Amino acid sequence: MRTVRTGWTARTAAGALLAVAVLVGCGAGGGSPGPGGPSGGATAGATAGTPGASGLPAPSASPSRDPAAERLVTVTRTGGFAGRTVVLTVRGDGSWTRTSGTAQPGAGQLPPAGLEALRSALRAADLPRLPADARADPPVYDGFAYEFAYDGSTVSSDEGSLTPGLRKVLEALPGF
Question: Engineered SS bond to 134: which of 41, 113, 157, 159, CB 3.0-4.6 Å?
Answer without folding.
Answer: 157
